[in-house]
Model the fold of this input.
Amino acid sequence: MAQKPSNTSENNAVQFVFGKQNYYILIASIVIVIIGFALMSGETDIYSFRKIVLAPIVVLAGFALGFYAILKKQAVKV
Done:
């Protein structure tokens, strides 16, 4: 027969996938992506350095930071 799980404090502790620091990094990455798209916006001077070089680099940096936030492991508390 299958045994019932015991109701100890170890079994009732909820462990989240992401820690607080992961969420802060993820929010920062979203802000960086928004800044990159804001740099890319506008209708005048389409071929400026800001729109074709700087803005895509900022957007890609924001996405890279988001991937880092997702893959970063939280510290294990003992």
